[in-house]
Specification:
mainly alpha, rod-shaped, mRNA splicing, spliceosome
């Protein structure tokens, strides 16, 4: 009887509104992590492609001008 009113307070952790707020924030956080992971993966792929072209230039398979254009893009995206 004495503490029954606490569950009706707006700050109560068991209220449906607060549970929904927490769930929404968790979903936003998960989405943020997915975007960060996707960005990291993309950057790794770009770096790998650049390093491969760099090796091709060193081996004489492609001209150095192809590498220079790529490097400018690579530096801008950092």
């Amino acid at each position: 009887m004495g503490l029954d009113y606490l569950s009706k307070k707006n700050w109560h952790t068991g209220s449906i509104k607060n549970i929904a707020k927490v769930w929404e924030k968790e979903q936003k956080y998960i989405e943020k992590l997915k975007k960060q992971e996707e960005y990291t993966k993309k950057r790794h792929e770009e770096k790998t492609a650049y390093e491969l072209k760099q090796l091709q230039v060193e081996a004489g398979l492609i001209p150095k001008s192809a590498l220079d254009n790529n490097r400018r893009y690579y530096k801008q995206s950092l």
